[in-house]
Specification:
The complex is a heterodimer of chains A (235) and B (404). Chain A is an alpha/beta fold and 235 residues long. Chain A has helices spanning 44-51, 74-84, 100-110, 115-128, 144-156, 174-191; strands at residues 2-13, 16-28, 33-37, 59-64, 67-68, 85-88, 162-166, 194-198, 210-215, 218-224. Chain B is built from 12 helices and 12 strands. Chain B is 53% helix and 18% strand. The chains are: A alpha/beta (235), B alpha+beta (404).
């Protein structure tokens, strides 16, 4: 569960202060598949980066499963990311010298688990994303959609509390995007995986349980995913 | 919070980066490090050969293991016979030769060419137990104890009829059977038949000439005296203990080891060589550190985004830096191994096709202590050169690095 209180993020562009987030408060419950949407430059990716501990907020508090992550130092944040969070990025971000199996196994090995155990977990999760037969392939041998599925498997291998996805379909065609979104929905439904995903594609909303709309660094509205393009209920 | 998973991930990433990275870059970097190792050790390998050859020549022809000289302010050892008998009783002594040297002018009777030389006299039997002249006769014979009108001449002093072939001033082509005239400092002039020519390859040594003690004593009345006494022991390494054993037997003359005698002559040359070697080592280390820095820097800059992702998914900075340092260590280990192989190959080639120096043909000798030191230095500068760019990139904020 994520509880955000009065979250602010101010960037300095030369001498000018730019407020990317201007006091966002929200709650994301365990097992939810939440979409963060909004116009370009609204602050949706900034919000995801703060929630995912990839950046430090200028003010406000973030509680993840009861831990005030705003208080953690750099080392503790890194360890928290490893043990509690998973990430899927827009451009897959796989290590080119590692094959599919090795890319996915890295976070598990980093936890200090025995290698056979890491590889067993890796194989299971790769089978789940439909890449069970491509374990030994190198990254450049995969299509964009397959690379993104490897990235999802890597995010899931340590069974994180929350999976963050930053526009994971931005570089994919509609078919591959649908595969990725189906996969997200499957792990959300079957494993109860909490997923927070940034998107700007309207048709993605059908997959979200709830949508958080951001505009000019502020929470605009929230609505249920099935409400589609209609006006959402205010929080 | 931390566990040993981090070190495993460093190794895991490093092994795969090496295995699946660019082979050409890898091979080129290893080659450069290998050449650095060769550069750092080549000169000292040659110096080692020169020093070893020079030391051996000092022992084999000039000083033995220990040399006894007259006391201060004296030109000869007066009681040489008694002293020789005394030294022969010292445990570990295998040979003693009492020599007498005097200034002379040697003239080639055939062509009139002459050279001013210190003519040395020894007992041929005693000398055989200390030096190796008897094994280096290239023409004619070695001296016999009873020879009185015979002389042994070094190949360089004998020289060539064609002066342009001479390396040092010579008698212009003296051969076995020829006669030379020796003018002694007391005015005696005597003709000698050249009995043998010796050649040791040492420039200083092969410009010498020898007669027997019997002959010298009859001309210069030097019976029972010596200008130097050469002592041979079990080995060159034991020379110092042999020196103290001789001193403990009550010898009051100056007792010096071969090393003490020879230090002054080659010392300056070795010091200059060492300075050159140190400069080469420094330059080589700078080259190695720059190469490793550039290779790591380019490698890591190309993977800036990848590093940011690794940090984002929870891989600690130290682990990522560690993986790059392991790659640097691998490059160094391979480079050092290839460098040592190249050094040994060069050493072998130069042993087969020996380099000619003024003291003779030298066999290169790899100084393994120096090699270990240069290897250690190479590892230190390489690790630092790899660490700096790795640390620099890894310390960037995740989002900044991801945006490139």
């Amino acid at each position: 569960m994520i509880e955000v209180t009065n979250l602010k993020k101010i960037y300095l562009l030369g001498q000018v202060e730019v407020a990317a987030l201007r006091g966002v408060s929200l709650t994301i419950k365990k097992g939810e598949f939440v979409g963060i949407m909004g116009p370009s430059g609204s602050g949706k990716s900034t919000l995801l980066h703060q929630l995912g501990l990839l950046d430090k907020p200028s003010a406000g508090h973030i509680l993840i499963d009861g831990t005030d992550v705003s208080q953690l130092d750099d080392e503790e944040r890194t360890d928290f990311r490893l043990r509690h969070l998973g990430y899927v990025f827009q451009d897959y971000a796989l290590v080119s010298e590692l094959n599919v199996m090795e890319n996915v196994a890295i976070p598990a090995i980093m936890q200090g688990k025995p290698l056979p155990e890491c590889y067993a977990a890796t194989t299971r999760v790769l089978e789940k994303v439909g890449l069970g037969k491509r374990l030994d392939h190198l990254v450049y041998e995969l299509s964009g959609g397959e690379q993104q599925r490897v990235s999802i498997a890597r995010a899931l291998v340590n069974t994180p509390s929350i999976l963050f996805a930053d526009e994971p379909c931005a570089n994919l065609d509609t078919e591959n995007s649908r595969t990725v979104l189906e996969l997200f929905r499957a792990v959300n439904r079957e494993l109860g995986q909490t997923i927070v995903m940034v998107s700007h594609e309207q048709w993605h909303t059908e997959y979200f349980d709830r949508i958080i709309l951001i505009r000019d660094g502020l929470l605009d509205t929230e609505r249920m995913g099935w409400e589609g393009n209609g006006s959402g209920a205010a929080r | 919070m931390h566990n040993n998973g981090g070190y495993r991930v460093s190794l895991y990433l490093a092994v795969r980066a090496i295995r699946r990275g660019n082979r050409n870059t890898l091979a080129l970097t290893i080659l450069i490090i290998a050449l650095v190792i060769v550069l750092m050790n080549f000169l000292s390998m040659i110096i080692g050969g020169v020093v070893t050859l020079y030391n051996q020549q000092m022992i084999d022809y000039q000083y033995g293991h220990v040399m006894i000289e007259p006391r201060d302010k004296e030109t000869t050892i007066a009681n040489a016979n008694a002293l020789v008998r005394q030294i022969q009783r010292v445990p570990g002594v295998t040979g003693v030769s009492a020599r007498v040297s005097t200034g002379t002018t040697i003239t080639n009777t055939k062509n009139g060419k002459f050279q001013s030389k210190a003519l040395t006299a020894f007992d041929p039997v005693d000398e055989q137990r200390v030096t190796l002249y008897h094994l280096k006769i290239t023409d004619g014979d070695y001296l016999s104890k009873g020879d009185t009108d015979q002389i042994l001449i070094g190949a360089l002093l004998a020289g060539n009829e064609d002066e342009s072939l001479d390396k040092v001033p010579s008698l212009g082509g003296v051969k076995v059977g020829d006669r030379v005239t020796v003018t002694y400092s007391n005015g005696v002039v005597k003709s000698y038949r050249v009995k043998g020519i010796f050649e040791t390859e040492g420039a200083l040594i092969d410009a010498a000439a020898f007669i027997t003690r019997n002959e010298m004593d009859s001309v210069m009345h030097t019976e029972g005296t010596a200008t130097e006494i050469l002592v041979k022991g079990a080995s060159a390494d034991d020379a110092a203990s042999l020196k103290y054993a001789i001193m403990n037997y009550g010898v009051e003359e100056k007792v010096k080891t071969w090393n003490e005698k020879g230090r002054g002559i080659l010392g300056d040359a070795i010091a200059s060589f060492s300075l050159l070697n140190n400069i080469m080592t420094f330059v080589s280390l700078v080259v190695a550190s720059v190469v490793v820095f550039i290779v790591t820097f380019i490698n890591i800059i190309n993977r800036k985004k990848q590093i940011a992702i690794l940090k984002a998914i929870g891989i600690r900075k130290q682990v990522i830096v560690g993986s790059y340092l392991l790659q640097v260590l691998f490059l160094c280990i391979c480079g050092v191994i290839v460098g040592i192989l190249m050094l040994n190959t060069i050493s072998y080639v130069l042993t087969v096709n020996q380099l000619k120096f003024p003291m003779g043909y030298i066999t290169p000798i790899i100084n393994y202590t120096g090699l270990a030191t240069s290897t250690a230095l190479l590892f230190v500068v390489s690790v630092i050169s790899g660490y700096i760019p790795a640390r620099q990139v890894v310390n960037e904020e995740i989002l900044d690095a991801m945006r490139g």
